[in-house]
Amino acid sequence: VREAGGNQIVALSADRHRELNRAALLETRLLKALDEKNLHVLYQPQVNTQTQKICGVEALVRWDDDVVGSVAPGELIPLAESTGLIHNIGNYMLREACQQAVSWKKAGTPITVSINASVREFRDKNMADVVLQTLAETRCPAELIQFEITEKFALEAELVGSIQKQLETLQEAGVSFVLDDFGTGYSSFRYLQILPISAIKIDDTFIQAIEKSEKTQKLVESMIQLGKTLDLTIVAEGVETTQQLKWLQTTACDILQGYAICKPIAVADINKRL
Ligand code: C2E
Ligand code: CA
Ligand code: CA
Ligand code: CA
């Protein structure tokens, strides 16, 4: 296999060759999995910091393929983003989340379900319509659905207006938005300034350094204060130790998520905890 770069033709290294083969295989298998609904969802509890009662869950995609084995989101999502299949995954996760949210509401234990979405997904001018339609079809109250948006990419100037409009339309309908991985991205402040965000999720890299560094503690305290000044709900992700949990309980952080509370689990296991 050869890769053309401009007029040059470059012989591929064995590694790059293997990478391309794997990507091609994964893409074929992913298409099949989407077609056959062979993806599934695990839910990780989000709890009130003080009472530790479940107030929501984050929906996380899982893919166990017969041929390629289980593919972690860390490999799956970038692949899906580069092939455009992220829209299919997004639609699948949204529908699953809505159906599940309705089922928890019917059981008398309504909880918020958070779905991950790259801001790139909101480049699609139909995104708000697709979401509203899915909410209607599943009879899911918009208030039960939340999008966690990441700032992996800088906002492209020419798309800002459109993305803003999509999010505002959804917010008016009752859907809310959380700024995920807060503190690590390109443009946290810009996002907070122009997008209808109601919560920030402090990135796990900060949370996990709490015990080790006083500087990190001060950083986290400042993030919480900033969020409170802006009337935002504060979520901490990746809470792994009792020490981190106890420390966060001394702050104004509202919601906790992480292995110290519970790992991502199947619906039946969430039900046992509600
Ligand atoms: P994220 O949104 O930051 O999600 C949290 C990740 O941290 C999840 O990994 C979760 O299993 C893991 N985690 C939870 N508690 C802890 C903890 O205490 N310690 C540590 N070290 N990790 C913890 P996962 O499920 O592998 O997902 C990785 C990333 O893939 C997610 O990061 C998210 O950005 C993306 N992702 C997952 N599902 C979807 C999806 O349906 N759509 C999109 N667009 N992205 C998704
Ligand atoms: Ca997330
Ligand atoms: Ca995150
Ligand atoms: Ca993170």
From TrEMBL:
Segments forming domain EAL: 23-274
Name under which the protein is recorded: EAL domain-containing protein
Lineage: Bacteria, Bacillati, Bacillota, Bacilli, Bacillales
Residues of the whole record sequence present: 398 to 671 of 671
Lineage: superkingdom: Bacteria
Species, as recorded: Lysinibacillus alkalisoli
